[in-house]
Amino acid sequence: MTEAILTETKPTSPTHTAPEINYQVAMPQPSSHLFEVTLRISGWRSPVLDLKMPVWTPGSYLVREYARHLQEFAAAAGDESALSWRKLSKNHWQIETPEISEIVVHYRIFAAELTVRTNHLDATHGYFNGAALFLRVVGWEQTPMQVKILCSRSLPKSAWKVTTMLPAVRGKPDTFWAADFDTLVDSPFEIGTHRLYHFEVLGKPHELAIWGEGNANPVQMIPDIEKIIQEEARLFGGLPYDRYVFLLHMVSQGRGGLEHKHGCSLIYNRFGFRDRSSYQEFMQLVAHEFFHLWNVKRLRPQGLEVFDYDRENYTPCLWFCEGTTSYYDLVMPMRAGIYDVRTFLQELGKEINRLQTSPGRLVQPASESSWDAWIKLYRRHANSENSQISYYLKGELVSLLLDLLIRARHNVPRQSRGNEGRSLDDVMQKMWQEFGKREIGFTEAQLQQEIESVAGVELGDFWGRYIDGTEELPFDQYLSPFGLRLKRDCVDKVGESFPYLGVRAKAENGRELIKFVASGSPAQQAGIDHGDELLAIDGIRVKAEELNERLKDYSPGDTIKLSVFHEDRLRTELVTLGEPQPNRYQVVPVEHPTDIQAQNFTGWLGVPLSQVFD
């Protein structure tokens, strides 16, 4: 290596014939967790070759520094003679290629993190995402490229298979074609002995690949997945692909997903498919990632229209991309008949509960949460709950209000209103026709304008209060036209209330640790900190699991002596307890709903209000 020179050379002429770009991915020793990647470039005509590793992957808005897993970089000419190269930045390699037309680059990628956005290789399988594995040839990102997979020598050829969204190259075994680098990044690979199931929906082929052991039942899952596909396709007027692949990893714990244009990666608890509630959550995950093939993969904000893989790509509209999708991941399984309206309203109550018990909702607006996704959502710290809110969660419930607002204005049978039956569905359809089909990025102003055109009302005040502002969402105001209200309780699971202290504690490695202190709470005002070890109340030892039960022995306004270890120093603070705080929110019917309210409810959810709450 030589001294870094901070320059980057692009192809000197747009008339140059595009080089041929081919990747080879080998797994000679899976137990090492090392993918061996070979990049072969033919027909090169520039004095230097710039290669870069993406720092993030679309759909997961965090700079993950994928280059940190790259090792043993080497470059050679076609005759195997070594080429000089230098590293210009954390993710940028530059190779000297004077009069060199054939270039071969070798490197290894360490892959021991199994998530939907990283790479994983062991004796059972290989899984990778393009952004986390492939160096891109700077300036030639629009050039078609091929990927060849070489099997591990320890795994018999007859026992393994390759599943990816990329089309296979005819006549070349285990070789796949990508139209450009964006497509390569957007097409993860699952390689190994996974189970593969084929099914057809609306005349289009679909695949479900399942890796790992657990209680997933494809006989049950596939028909339900088909129903979700049909419902979402009905909303948008068809399926915008020729083939779609679901990749499912079953793991010991956790859940997540990452959307792609022609498929999705899912990760879920291996034994989370038998319990009805857990299975329904899985179907919500499927509905969420599948909805993304429209909302964000094709219909996306201007800030994500062209991906810059070297840095953060900012937009204030992630509340719409992810939050509106989260609203529909509750709606679509209900419409598909996977669960009923009562379950939908219960799930909605859980989401409202999550929002209303998050202090950060009063600090960070949804648009700011979208913009700051890169530095906040995935980088939690002691004050995160007090200072920020998830754009998934806030956006989901803002979308609920917008749906109810539109429906309330246009579903009431008054001839003067006209254009009956509008909803947030119409917004999605309009956005799809205007921007998604042509993959033209939209601005925040255009998004507001399209929603206003469907709602038939100016939304500047709404935007200012609930998207760009931090005012409490007025759930009762928007639920009332549908015969519903929000019930707020200050009780625990057994129906008893307790005075407010403002901490959450958890037993951890034999210690009772305070994991969260609410901003402005009695505990914070007394100087109690995140990380303190909880010891006693009024001189008597207290465990984390007993804390709320012990507080029931006191009344609001009482002062207790709270003993903790703070950085290994014993402290006893006087804490004056506050009034019980709402900690449980439920969507329930109003008393004596009117005919209009009942009609609106049926128009929204498809069944009579009286039938749901009998």
Question: What sort of overall outline do the alpha carbons produce when their principal axes are compared?
Answer: globular
The termini sit apart by 76 Å
As residue ranges, the low-confidence spans are: 1-15, 413-419
Q: C-alpha Rg, in Å?
A: 27 Å
**% residues in beta strands:** 25-35%
Structural class: alpha+beta
- Main sheet attributes: strand count, strand direction, barrel closure: 6 strands, mixed
Q: Supply the number of structural domains.
A: 4
Number of DSSP helices?
16
CATH superfamily of the largest domain: Neutral Protease Domain 2
The oligomerization state is: single chain
Helical proportion? 25-40%
CATH class of the largest domain: Mainly Alpha
CATH topology of the largest domain: Neutral Protease, domain 2
Q: What is the count of β-strands?
A: 27
CATH architecture of the largest domain, by name, is: Orthogonal Bundle
Spatial arrangement of strands, main beta sheet? 4-7-2-1-11-13
Report the average pLDDT across residues: 94
What this model shows, in words?
The chain is α+β, with helices and mostly antiparallel strands and 614 residues long. It folds into four domains: 20-193, Immunoglobulin-like (Sandwich); 194-293, Neutral Protease, domain 2, CATH 1.10.390; 296-323 and 336-486 and 588-614, Neutral Protease, domain 2 (Orthogonal Bundle), CATH 1.10.390.10; 503-576, Pdz3 Domain (Roll), CATH 2.30.42.10. The protein is built from 16 helices and 27 strands. Strand 23 (533-537) and strand 24 (540-541) form a beta hairpin. The termini are far apart. Residues 1-15 and 413-419 have low confidence and may be disordered.
